[in-house]
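User: Reviewer 2 asked us to show a designed sequence for the structure in our supplementary figure. I'm pasting the structure tokens here. Could you produce the per-position amino acids so we can include them in the response letter?
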């Protein structure tokens, strides 16, 4: 009987110890989960989206590698140095405001790096939302771009980490199409800027005639989508917009006249999801699409007429709708 009582006591002690240990573990887990606040999670997602946007849209020109040859824009390390290091006490909030101001309206007044404008010229206006620029700015501010070996030391690990963070994110067709359009624009823009810088406007017209279509088509193939540029006043007849596209162009132009932002549109057409995204002119565009014999030099105009006898793509001003990206996507299963 005493042995039974003793055994029962031992069992009771073991049960109490187990309960205490298990309870502590649960409390620890609860304490940890308390630290994983929605705010912290959203902040991490913003950083991951910022990295993704930079890789898809910005690194093509703002190369993070330590290379000088062929550079067509300042590297990210230089951007961070000028915006942050030169203003040692700048807050993340003020940095975001400065970047939004410049990206929404790239000009000398809004730039913090006048030397870069002299060396590379003004960057084209990008079709980012304010939320996207904020995500890009957050990532730049918190990154280690200032490390000269950032690409070698950090790029692959960062890419893997941010892909993991975003793998469960549900991306709408509208955002997915925008990603494809911006990736294609980045590749095409990089090549066009290089042609302008190295060979001048006249030869850049020849570049567009022989290579632009293939670059866009190849980008679509690589992304597994069909992508094209169309306009109501095309330079090349193959880029004429169809009725659905013309309707979007009409509404987009109306939005610009009313000083409203153009909202991309996705339609379900023939069992495909088709997205429309604006192409808005900037100062660089005026060299080939501005006013003949004033903004467009006579030798450039002669080349345009030679290569595009039916050209309708002149007479534009800055911040006008030049055309649209059309992205045709397969439906998700």
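Assistant: Here is a per-position design you can include in the supplement:
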């Amino acid at each position: 009987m005493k042995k039974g009582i003793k055994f029962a006591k031992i069992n009771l002690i073991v049960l109490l110890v187990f309960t205490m240990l298990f309870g502590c573990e649960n409390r620890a887990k609860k304490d940890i989960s308390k630290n994983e606040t929605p705010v912290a999670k959203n902040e991490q997602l913003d950083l991951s989206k910022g990295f993704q946007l930079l890789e898809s849209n910005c690194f093509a020109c703002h190369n993070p590698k330590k290379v000088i040859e062929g550079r067509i824009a300042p590297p990210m390390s230089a951007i961070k140095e000028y915006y942050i290091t030169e203003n040692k006490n700048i807050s993340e909030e003020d940095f975001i405001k400065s970047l939004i101001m410049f990206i929404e309206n790239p000009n000398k007044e809004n730039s913090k790096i006048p030397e870069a404008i002299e060396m590379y010229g003004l960057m084209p206006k990008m079709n980012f939302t304010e939320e996207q620029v904020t995500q890009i700015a957050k990532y730049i501010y918190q990154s280690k771009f200032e490390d000269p070996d950032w690409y070698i030391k950090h790029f692959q690990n960062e890419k893997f980490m941010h892909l993991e963070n975003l793998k469960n994110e549900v991306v709408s067709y509208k955002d997915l199409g925008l990603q494809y359009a911006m990736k294609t624009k980045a590749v095409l823009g990089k090549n066009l800027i290089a042609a302008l810088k190295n060979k001048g406007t006249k030869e850049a017209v020849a570049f567009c005639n022989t290579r632009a279509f293939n670059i866009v088509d190849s980008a679509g193939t690589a992304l597994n989508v069909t992508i094209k540029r169309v306009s109501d006043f095309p330079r090349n007849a193959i880029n004429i917009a169809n009725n659905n596209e013309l309707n979007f162009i009409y509404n987009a132009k109306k939005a610009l006249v009313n000083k409203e932002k153009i909202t991309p549109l996705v339609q379900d057409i023939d069992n495909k999801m088709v997205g429309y995204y604006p192409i808005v002119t900037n100062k660089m565009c005026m060299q080939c699409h501005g006013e003949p014999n004033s903004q467009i030099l006579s030798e450039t105009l002669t080349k345009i007429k030679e290569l595009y006898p039916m050209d309708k793509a002149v007479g534009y001003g800055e911040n006008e709708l030049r055309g649209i990206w059309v992205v045709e996507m397969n439906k998700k299963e």
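For the response letter, you might also mention the following. Residues 1-36 have pLDDT under 50 and may be disordered. The first strand starts at residue 226 and ends at 230.
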